[in-house]
Amino acid sequence: MAVEFVDTNVLVYAYDRSAGPKNRRAAALMERLWSGNAGSTSIQVLQEFFVITTRKIARPLRPERARTIIGDMGAWRIHRPSIEDVLGAIEIAEKACISFWDGMIVRSASAQGATVVWSEDLQAGGKISGVRIHNPFLDDRALTGPGT
Question: Which domains does the chain have, with CATH numbers?
């Protein structure tokens, strides 16, 4: 079974009702990943999700709601980085000329055997450390799966 990693921005849009079409697109991707048991993310993404959705979006979530969502996400594959992952992320960031935090996203996806990272922030269409980057807001494979 293919593993697909979700970056923070996609997860946030899935729960940000003020995000219009991005909300609908991200929610559809999340639903596909849930139904196909293909979703993965990381502790970093869940931490960022909590801060952004409770403080930085137009209609913030109540902390209790964000906590429930994060708890539910525990059913997915969740990468819990080690010191080796941090060092690996630094190496990825240097080689790919991306930020450390984006390097950590790629490292987490790679560590879980993900074939794709769904992200609005990383350069779509590229491949970093064996992981293909797709933007779910520009790519219909978000709704059908990356192999289609």
Answer: 4-144 (3.40.50.1010)
Alpha helix positions (H), 1-148: 8-15, 21-35, 43-55, 63-73, 83-96, 100-111, 141-144
Q: Return d(Cα 3, Cα 140) in angstroms, integer.
A: 17
Q: Give the whole-angstrom CA distance, residue 121 versus residue 124.
A: 8
Q: What is the pLDDT of residues 103-120, one digit of tens each?
A: 999 999 999 999 999 999
pLDDT in tens, 47-98: 999 999 999 999 999 999 999 999 999 999 999 999 999 999 999 999 999 9
| CA gap 23, 105 in Å, rounded | 21
Structure tokens at 92: 């990825």
CB 16 within 8 A of CB 58: yes
Burial of 35 (0-12, 13-18, 19+ CB in 10 A): exposed
According to DSSP, residue 82 is labeled -
Q: What are the structure tokens assigned to 142, written together? A: 């978000």
